[in-house]
Amino acid sequence: METVLVGMSGGVDSTVTALLLKGAGYNVIGSTMAIWGTCGDTDNTKKNSKKKSCYGTNEKEDINEVRKLCQKLDIPFYAIDCVEQYKKEVLDNFRAEYLSGRTPNPCVRCNCRIKFGAYPQNAKAQGIKFDKFATGHYARIETDTDGKHILKRGLDQNKDQSYFLYRLNTEQLSNIILPLGSRTKDEIRSIAKSYELDVAQKPDSQDFYSGNYNELLKMPDKKGYIINADGKILGEHNGIWNYTIGQRKGLYISAPQALYVIELRADTNEVVVGYADETFSKSLCANDLSWIKETPETIRTVLNTEQISAKTRSTQQPLNVSASLVDDYNLKVEFDEPQKSITVGQSVVLYNNDTVLGGGIIRTVQ
Fold first, then answer.
1. How many of the other CB atoms lie within 10 Å of CB of 341?
2. Cα Rg of the chain, angstroms
3. Residue 151 vs residues 138, 161, 294: alpha-carbon distances, Å
4. Edge-first strand listing for the sheet containing 233-237
5. How does residue 47 score in pLDDT terms, banded at 50, 70 and 90?
6. How far apart are CA 206 and CA 136, in angstroms?
7. At residue 59, does pLDDT exceed 50?
C-alpha cells in the first residue's frame, strides 16, 4: 500500500483530496506547511485582516483547523516548518520584484520552490515516510508516449490551476498526485457535503496576503510623479510599489475618461497612466524560462510545428499565439489579437491543446 502525504490548507479541495485518496486505498497522512511562524507557534497577536490568506497572522488558527479535519478523517497530521525557505524564496523575491517596478506572482514561485519543493523535502527530513505527495489543485498529470510525466489543464475550465504549476518538471510530476483534475468544483463540494464535512460550503481560494502589501515591502514613502505617455505630469504618488498594471482605482486624477496604469518606471520613480486603448499590447518577451519536459532544442520544434496557445493570467482562457525562442533563455510571444494589461513580472504559460509546455516571466511588453 502506497503512503501519500497530502498538503492541506483547511479548504474543501484539499480535504476532499485526502478523503478520495483514503477511499482509493492509499495510506494517507495529512499535513500543512507553516510559513508565517514555526509550525504555528508564533504569537500571532496582530491581525492584518479577518480575511484568510496563505501568508499571514491567521496561520495558527489555520493549522488547528487542518488538525481537526484530519481527526475527523481519521488520518495522522503534521505541520511542516517551511518558514526560512519561504522567506528566502518567496518573500525576498516578492519585495525585490515590486521595488523594481514589476508585479510578481508569488503563488507560481511558491508552488515550484516551496509547496512541491521544500515542503515534501522538509517532511522527509522530519522523519515522515511517504511515497507520493498530493494536493487539491485542479490540474491533471499523465504520461506521454515516451513514458514521461506531463501536466494538463483541469477538466473544469473555470477552476483549472495548471497556470500556477507550469514551473514543475517531469521528475517532480512523477511523485505527485492531483485527484481533482478530472472533477468539477460542484462535484467536490457535493462529496464534502455527503460526508457532512463543515468545509463543504467554505468560500473558495485564499489571497497571497490579506493585508496591505506595504506591510511586507516595509518601504517609506518615496514621492514621484504620475505622468502620461507623453511625459506630462498629472499627479503625484508615494511609491511605484503601490500600483499595478491595469489599475484604475486610487489614481485620484481628473480626466475626461478613465485612466489606467500602463507602466511602472523604477529608474525614474514614475507611474505612467493612459486611457483604455493604451492598455492593450500585441506581444511580449519573457525570460527565466521553465519547460516541463522539453529542452530548448525540442521546444523549438514544438513551437514551430504545433498550434500554441498562452495565458498571461490564471483566470484567462488560453489564447492562440505565435511563440518562438529568441535564444535558449528568451521567449517571444505574439497574440492574434491585442491583449489588455499584460503585466511585467507575471508569467506567460504556453499550451499545446490542453498540455502545459512551460513558460517564463514576462519582462517586456509591446
1. 20
2. 22
3. 11, 11, 12
4. 233-237, 224-228, 270-274, 260-265
5. very low
6. 13
7. yes
Q: How far is CA 155 from CA 16, 136, 158, 179, 344, in A?
A: 17, 14, 9, 12, 29
User: Region 180-206: what's the mean pLDDT?
Assistant: 92
Provide DSSP, 155-170.
SSTTT--GGGGTT--H
pTM score, whole prediction = 0.94
- pLDDT-based confidence at 58, cuts 50/70/90? confident
Separation between Cα atoms, residue 184 and residue 153, nearest integer Å: 12
Closest CA to 25 of 156, 135, 131, 152: 131
Strand (E) or helix (H) holding 310 = strand 308-311
Cα end-to-end span (Å), the chain = 53
303: alpha, beta or left, given left = phi > 0 and alpha = psi -120 to 50?
alpha
Q: Is the model's pLDDT at 57 over the cut of 60? A: yes
User: The C-alpha cell of 38 is what?
Assistant: 514555526
Residue 364: all three cell numbers together: 517586456
C-alpha cell, 276: 483604455
- CB hemisphere CA count around 327 (13 angstroms): 3
CA distances from 18 to 107, 179, 293 (A): 22, 9, 28
The average confidence (pLDDT) of the chain is: 94
Q: In whole angstroms, what is the distance from residue 359 CA to residue 73 CA?
A: 38
Distances (CA, A) of 177 to 79, 132, 136, 200: 20, 7, 9, 22
pLDDT above 80 (res 282): yes
Please say if the pLDDT value at position 90 is more than 70.
yes
